[in-house]
Structure formats: C-alpha cells, structure tokens
Backbone:
C-alpha cells in the first residue's frame, strides 16, 4: 500500500493561533435555531455538504436539547471530530462509551488522547477495544507498536509490527519499524527497514524524505542526494524535496522525520488519511488527519493536504483558514500562500487573488511556482501581455527545459497569440511539441491557428488529425478538425466533424457558429440561421458576436474570408 501524501487537519491549538493572523477567508454567516428540529435538519444538510463547522455547531445545539439521544450524540461526535474540535470529541467519546462499549471510533479517539498524554498502557487498552476488520486491525497494530516505542521497548514494538504479513501493508510495516528503530537508537536495523520500505515505495514522498534524512544523518549525504534527486525527476520542484536538496548542498543537518512516539502515531493517522483521500472518502480522511494533527500540530504537509480536501469540496473558507495555518518555517508555506490566491480567484475575489500572488512574487521574485501561478491568473483574466512577461521570467530560470516544462511554453504561446504576437506564439508552440511530442492540446492549438490564418493548411490538418486520434471524444479538438476541412473547402468532411463536435459540446458558441457556416455552404440555410442564432444566445466573445450578428442578418459572403483566432477556450481543449 503506497504511503503517498496524506491529508491533514488543524488541531485546536493551531485553530487558536490562526485567529491572531490576517484571515483571507470571509466566513459564511449562519445562526443556530431556537428549534431543536431546525438545528437537526440544518446539521444533516451541513453534514451532507461536508461543511464541518456548521455541522458540528448545529449538532451541538440539537444535542443540548436532547442530551441522551444516542444517535444524535454519535452524529455530534463525528461532526465535532471532522471539524477538529478535539476537546469536545474526547468528551463525547467518553459519553458514548458509557452506553456503547463497542464504538470503535470512540475507543480510537481516546487512544489518541492517551498517546498525547504518554499514557501508553491506557492507549493500548483503548486500541484493543477499537473493533475488528482488516483496516482497524492494521491501525491497532501500528499504533500499539508506537505505544511500546513510547516506553522504549524496541523489541515489542517491532514484534508487534511483524504481525503484519500481508504484502499490501508491508510498506507501512517496514516504514514504521524503521522510524521506531531510528528513534530508539538501533541505527543498523533502522537502516535495513527504511531501505526495504524505500525500495518498494520510491514514489512516496514520506518514505523518500524519511530515508533521505536517515542517510544524511548517517553521513551518507551523496546517497541521500541521489534519493531526493530520483524523486525530483518524477515530480519536479516539490518544495519538500527542494528544501532537502538545498540543505544537503549547504551541508545543513536534516532532522529525523519523527522525533517522538506521539509524532510516530501521528504519522500512522497521516497515512490512513492519505488512503481515505485517495479513495475519495473525505469524511474518513478528515477524521484520521484531525487526530494526526492533534498529535503533531505543526505538520505543514498535513495541513496543506487537508486544505486540499476542503478545496475539492468547495469549502473555500475552511481551505483558506487551513492554508494560513501552515507554519512559516515549513517548506510548504509559500505554496500554501499561492494556493490561497488561487482559491480567492475561484471564489470570484479576483482583485484579492492578484494582490495575493503579486505580493508573494514581490517577496520571492525567483519563486517559479509563484510566478507560474501569477502568469496563469493573468492569462485567465485576459491580461495576455503581462502574462507573457511573467511566463518569460519563469522560462529564463530554466537551465535546460524538460518534458514537464512544456506547459510554460504552451501557456506563453497562448498569451503571445492572444496579444497579437503570432511569430513568438508559433515558436513557443513548436518548442512545447519539441519537449512533448504528440501533446494533443498543443497539436490542436497550433494546427487550429494555422488553419484559421489560412496558412500551412496541410500541415495544420495533419496536426489536428493526430490530436483527434489522441482525444477522440473531445468536442473542441474535433471542431478544430472540422474547421480545417471548412477552410480548405471540404464542406462535407467539415459538416461530418462539426456535427460530431456539437453532439459533444452543444453549449459552445464557437462550435455552433462553425456548424452554421458549414450548413450555409451546403445550402442548408434555415439550419445555418438556427445555429447562428443559438451561438448568439450562448454569449460568445464580443468580437465573435459582431460577426455572428452580421451572418444572422445577411448570411455568409460568397467567398469565405479568414477569420480572427477563435476563443482561447476552444483551442486549448477546454
């Protein structure tokens, strides 16, 4: 089982400290009702929407009116836990267990409390009551091992872990065994376990970071550098990897990933949260990672990845609050600030988003991720000239552009094309294809642009056919191929492709406009007017609307003339 990025949460202490910072979020207003039924209904709706703050608030109020209702108590417990109200969660867990001794989640939460308080036997007692099932058994074994580590008993800890025989969980087993042995000073055996975990999990950020840190502390800094560089080739410029490589270059010490038994237990919950996130089980991910951050509240990666859950759920205020909690010392701090800017844009707060990203770039003028995000934002705002300048600042920092850098040239090409600098745009599209041959978005944009300008028609048609073969269900790409046939006077082929495109993207004004043109050339003028009228009503770009209105009034001229480049959205594949 891969130990990939987990999804984390903010503990109560983090939430309190965040209140002292400038908040980018504007909290959604809600009021509790004087009606218990109203509060219960509001809680159910909020829970279904994964609005954890509202759900926990409304369930708390509903429970106040009916304190012995077991179902209500359990719902309030889960809502409180997923929102990170740990004190309330502990109190509710205690209450639940008075009437339901088999509630596994309540026992697990109390085990986390005991671990935080270094009450190792009490933690094991709760874990042994946390229920059956494969996942719970694995969880109990891992956490039990860390309780023995808390007591300094490496043998019982590793014996506990070695009960895991299933190969699917061997990554967890060896990873945690290595961390425990390293923590307790058995360096030789720790190295064997961490190496075993790394050999099977080279794509796992946490395993790579743990093993790289272990090697660096052993004095094997070149080998550590190779471990990090291998991951960097897979996922370029990850801030945690870059921070480690910079530390190695500067001969700066790398601390262990886990420095206490409680932090090790937090890592268990962290990994379980990762699995929940990968399986789109957002509630389970939230719960596990709230417990993770209760045990280790300054884990920047955990906070960022929990924020990502809320962002995917469109709970933007919660995501912003979490991103603001990432410690400044964390390598992920700058990325959290960048992501906050992108969320502000998604919320419609474009001016705030631009101010946020420009502020980051002003502080860190060579930060590639910040510059790229700013360039993307400028491009989506149609500030094409400024966007091209920003992308150039990124590209100028690339010593040797790699395959993964094709997007920079592609996006700068779009910015150049839209700001009427076609020679520069064409060069960038060709460079993008040089880095990533057969990239369908680039094939489509370059091929369409040639055809639309009535140049390189045969070559443009070849590129578009290749793009369609790579994305056969993409209405935008198929429309480009149809438009190429139209510009070359092949109206039957054009009509066939454009009718396919309209089936896939019936609400796109450009495709409707193109289909109207094809109908007109085929003598089907009534249908042409229908498509043009439909295109007009779909809110096309202003320059396109002017042309469409002329066609609605007068039809097409006898000889087709080259049109201006169509909307960016059509050419970039949506």
Residues:
């Amino acid at each position: 089982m891969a130990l990939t990025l987990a999804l984390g949460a903010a503990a109560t202490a983090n939430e309190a400290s965040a209140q002292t910072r400038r908040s980018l979020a504007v909290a959604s207003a809600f009021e509790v009702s004087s009606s218990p039924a109203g509060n219960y209904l509001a809680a159910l709706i909020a829970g279904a929407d994964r609005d954890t703050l509202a759900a926990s608030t409304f369930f708390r109020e509903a429970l106040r009116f009916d304190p012995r209702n077991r179902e209500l108590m359990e719902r309030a417990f889960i809502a409180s836990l997923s929102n990170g109200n740990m004190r309330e969660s502990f109190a509710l867990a205690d209450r639940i267990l008075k009437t339901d001794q088999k509630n596994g989640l309540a026992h697990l939460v109390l085990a986390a409390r005991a671990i935080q308080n270094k009450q190792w036997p009490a933690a094991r007692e709760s874990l042994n009551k946390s229920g059956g099932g494969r996942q719970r058994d694995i969880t109990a074994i891992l956490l039990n091992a860390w309780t023995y580590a808390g007591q300094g008993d490496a043998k019982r800890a590793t014996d506990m872990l070695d009960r895991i025989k299933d190969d699917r969980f061997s990554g967890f087993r060896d990873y945690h065994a290595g961390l425990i042995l390293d923590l307790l000073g058995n360096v030789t055996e720790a190295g064997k376990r961490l190496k075993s975990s790394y050999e099977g999990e080279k794509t796992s950020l946490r395993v790579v970071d743990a093993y790289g840190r272990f090697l660096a502390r052993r004095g094997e800094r070149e080998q550590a550098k190779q471990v990090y560089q291998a991951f960097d080739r897979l996922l370029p410029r990850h801030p945690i990897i870059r921070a480690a490589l910079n530390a190695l270059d500067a001969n700066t010490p790398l601390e262990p990933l886990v420095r206490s038994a409680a932090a090790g237990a937090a890592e268990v919950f962290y990994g379980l949260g990762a699995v929940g996130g990968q399986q789109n089980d957002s509630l389970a991910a939230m719960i596990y990672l709230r417990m993770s951050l209760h045990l280790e509240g300054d884990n920047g990666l955990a906070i960022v990845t929990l924020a990502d859950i809320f962002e995917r759920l469109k709970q933007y205020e919660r995501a912003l609050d979490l991103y603001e909690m990432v410690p400044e010392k964390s390598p992920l701090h700058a990325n959290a600030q960048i992501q906050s800017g992108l969320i502000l844009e998604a919320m419609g707060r474009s001016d705030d988003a631009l101010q946020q990203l420009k502020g980051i770039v002003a502080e860190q003028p060579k930060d590639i991720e910040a510059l790229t995000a700013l360039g993307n934002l400028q491009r989506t705002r149609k500030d094409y000239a400024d966007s091209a300048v920003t992308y150039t600042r990124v590209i100028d920092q690339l010593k040797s552009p790699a395959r993964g850098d094709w997007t920079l040239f592609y996006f700068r090409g779009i910015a150049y094309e839209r700001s009427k600098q076609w020679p520069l745009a064409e060069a960038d599209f060709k460079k993008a294809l040089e880095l990533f041959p057969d990239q369908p978005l680039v094939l489509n944009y370059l091929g369409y642009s040639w055809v639309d300008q009535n140049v390189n028609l045969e070559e443009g048609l070849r590129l578009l056919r290749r793009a369609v073969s790579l994305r056969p269900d993409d209405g935008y790409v198929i429309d480009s191929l149809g438009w190429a046939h139209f510009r070359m006077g092949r109206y039957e082929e054009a009509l066939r492709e454009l009718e396919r495109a309209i089936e896939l993207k019936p609400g796109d004004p450009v495709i409707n406009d193109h289909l109207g043109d094809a109908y007109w050339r085929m003598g089907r003028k009534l249908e042409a007017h229908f498509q043009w009228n439909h295109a007009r009503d779909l809110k096309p770009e202003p320059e396109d609307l002017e042309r469409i209105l002329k066609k609605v009034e007068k039809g097409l001229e006898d000889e087709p003339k080259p049109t201006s480049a169509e909307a960016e959205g059509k050419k970039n594949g949506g």
Remarks:
- Residues 391 and 408 are 7 Å apart (CA to CA).
- The first helix runs from residue 12 to 18.
- DSSP finds 32 helices and no strands in the chain.
